């Protein structure tokens, strides 16, 4: 939806899904005309479960996802590609998405509009927080040989990406350096006592309630493995 960098469709799509499914993936793509800007893939095995039969049957659940942001990745718009080399892949955007599965016969609908009440209910739960990332590069060894100048870049989404003009510039890249032969087999960047420092400031929705729950479950799993493993 040009020229907006943050389009809002507020649409719902309906498509039939047979269980167990023949395909294992749901692939989504952001398309501008006939050009694919970015793609994302959801694995049905990650968002659903058929259940398991143990001493007592463990119930499964139908495919479900979100509502949450799904990141999309695709070729960098400023990347130069030569014959035989893969394109540089970069973050191309994200979509606030929810998937629900309902049993029953399809009613024939393919597309509909999400009601303004449902849109407002989601938007009020998306306060934004600022996040900062600082990185220090201590060494760069075993780098490709040649006369080309090399540099490293750190980005979070499109923040810090020098090829993205939708965000403010950031000190996210190291200075250009030419590789130096180490006298044996490899090349390195001659940083010596001057270590490059990069910093990226970004703004994202506050989803600490999900991070807290995930961190708690992962910590509990590691504790159980270390205690009873």
Automatic annotation (TrEMBL):
Q: Which GO terms describe its biological process?
A: membrane fusion; plasma membrane organization
Q: Which UniProt keywords apply?
A: Membrane, Repeat, Transmembrane, Transmembrane helix
Q: What is its main location?
A: membrane
Q: Which InterPro entries match?
A: C2_domain_sf, Ferlin
Q: Enumerate the subcellular locations listed in this protein's record, separating them with semicolons.
A: Membrane
Give the source lineage, highest ranks first. Answer: Eukaryota, Metazoa, Chordata, Craniata, Vertebrata
- What Gene Ontology cellular-component terms does the record carry? membrane
What's the protein name?
Answer: MYOF protein
């Amino acid at each position: 939806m040009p020229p907006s960098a943050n389009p809002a469709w507020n649409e719902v799509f309906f498509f039939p899904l047979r269980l167990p499914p023949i395909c294992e993936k749901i692939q989504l793509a952001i398309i501008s005309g006939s050009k694919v800007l970015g793609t994302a893939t959801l694995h049905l095995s990650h968002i659903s479960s058929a259940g398991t039969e143990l001493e007592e049957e463990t119930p499964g659940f139908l495919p479900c996802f979100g509502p949450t942001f799904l990141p999309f990745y695709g070729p960098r718009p400023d990347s130069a590609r030569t014959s035989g080399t893969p394109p540089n892949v970069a973050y191309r955007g994200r979509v606030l998405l929810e998937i629900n599965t309902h049993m029953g016969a399809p009613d024939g609908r393919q597309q509909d509009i999400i009601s303004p009440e449902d849109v407002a209910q989601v938007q009020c739960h998306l306060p934004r927080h600022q996040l900062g990332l600082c990185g220090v590069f201590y060494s760069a060894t075993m780098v490709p040989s040649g006369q080309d100048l090399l540099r490293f870049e750190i980005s979070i989404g499109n923040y810090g990406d020098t090829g993205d003009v939708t965000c403010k510039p950031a000190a996210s890249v190291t200075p250009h350096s030419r590789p130096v032969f180490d006298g044996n087999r490899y090349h390195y960047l001659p940083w010596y006592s001057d270590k490059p420092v990069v910093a990226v400031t970004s703004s994202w929705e506050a989803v600490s309630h999900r991070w807290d729950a995930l961190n708690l479950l992962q910590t509990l799993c590691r504790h159980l493995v270390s205690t009873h493993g």
